[in-house]
């Protein structure tokens, strides 16, 4: 039944999404803080667990005019705060593919995802290739083990921790100002979204691949002081070039201004190069 439903959703999107959803549905699910209709490539950014689209808003202004940044907004946060959280990876994939499919067919695109976003970006890319025959020109994966790696499968489950344990864990990985973690009202605003996303991650299953799913280049970023991630396992998703780049810092190393500058320069260089190859 579930497979038939997913197939029906894909068929519906192929046939009707461009006309029926239009700008209203696009703006609901996707943020674009800097419109660049003249851009030759789009960078689709996926949030980390509990995160929204705002962090990537700056990227749209910093990156060169050849790149337009689109950022995914999930239910339960930002302008979608009154919507129920998704409970499965398939729900995320179905919505993102349905809303973005027509846009992704217009011009070359690349994906960037950090942590939870790395897994969602791969799941979306996998479906796009299997069901619609399109793929990114480059995928940038950050701060996460491949979904089928033993490192991820054996990782500690966090979604059911008590609030006290949860906050202690958040403090240990960095990225959240300490003054926010000591404010109960603020904590209760972002904790539900974080728990919901971690539940999706913990219930997401992906069997080890029997061969590359993609052919585009894949780059993995990570912080040297973060918990160890099985980055090399990501190599199995593509027959294309595979690269690992490590940075000083822990899980949210990408928030460091110097690290961010290097990452954005790297992304710009590689998507512009890949776009020329695409043509």
Automatic annotation (TrEMBL):
<dbReference type="Pfam" id="PF00975">
    <property type="entry name" value="Thioesterase"/>
</dbReference>
<protein>
    <recommendedName>
        <fullName>S-acyl fatty acid synthase thioesterase, medium chain</fullName>
        <ecNumber>3.1.2.14</ecNumber>
    </recommendedName>
</protein>
<dbReference type="InterPro" id="IPR029058">
    <property type="entry name" value="AB_hydrolase_fold"/>
</dbReference>
<feature type="domain" description="Thioesterase">
    <location>
        <begin position="42"/>
        <end position="267"/>
    </location>
</feature>
<dbReference type="GO" id="GO:0016297">
    <property type="term" value="F:fatty acyl-[ACP] hydrolase activity"/>
</dbReference>
<dbReference type="GO" id="GO:0051792">
    <property type="term" value="P:medium-chain fatty acid biosynthetic process"/>
</dbReference>
<keyword id="KW-0275">Fatty acid biosynthesis</keyword>
<dbReference type="InterPro" id="IPR012223">
    <property type="entry name" value="TEII"/>
</dbReference>
<keyword id="KW-0443">Lipid metabolism</keyword>
<keyword id="KW-0276">Fatty acid metabolism</keyword>
<dbReference type="InterPro" id="IPR001031">
    <property type="entry name" value="Thioesterase"/>
</dbReference>
<keyword id="KW-0378">Hydrolase</keyword>
<keyword id="KW-0444">Lipid biosynthesis</keyword>
<comment type="similarity">
    <text>Belongs to the thioesterase family.</text>
</comment>
């Amino acid at each position: 039944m579930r497979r038939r439903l997913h197939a029906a959703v894909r068929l519906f999107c192929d046939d009707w999404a461009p006309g029926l959803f239009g700008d209203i549905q696009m703006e609901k699910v996707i943020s674009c803080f800097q419109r660049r209709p003249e851009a030759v490539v789009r960078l689709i950014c996926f949030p980390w667990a509990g995160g929204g689209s705002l962090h990537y808003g700056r990227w749209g202004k910093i990156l060169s005019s050849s790149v337009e940044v689109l950022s995914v907004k999930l239910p339960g946060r930002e302008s979608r705060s009154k919507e129920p959280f998704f409970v499965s990876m398939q729900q995320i994939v179905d919505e993102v593919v349905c809303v973005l499919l027509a846009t992704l067919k217009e011009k070359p695109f690349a994906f960037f995802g950090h942590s939870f976003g790395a897994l969602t970006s791969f799941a979306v890319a996998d479906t796009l290739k299997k069901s619609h025959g399109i793929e990114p020109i480059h995928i940038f994966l950050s701060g996460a083990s491949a979904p089928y790696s033993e490192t991820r499968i054996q990782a500690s489950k966090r979604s059911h921790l008590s609030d006290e344990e949860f906050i202690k864990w958040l403090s240990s990985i960095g990225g959240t100002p300490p003054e926010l973690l000591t404010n109960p009202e603020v904590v209760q605003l972002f904790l539900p979204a974080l728990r919901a996303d971690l539940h999706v991650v913990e219930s997401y299953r992906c069997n080890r691949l029997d061969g590359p799913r993609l052919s585009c280049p894949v780059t993995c970023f990570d912080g040297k002081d973060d918990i160890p991630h099985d980055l090399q396992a990501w190599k199995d998703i593509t027959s294309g070039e595979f690269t690992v780049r490590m940075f000083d810092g822990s899980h949210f190393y990408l928030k460091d201004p110097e690290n961010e500058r290097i990452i954005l320069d790297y992304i710009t260089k590689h998507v512009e190069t890949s776009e020329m190859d695409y043509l």
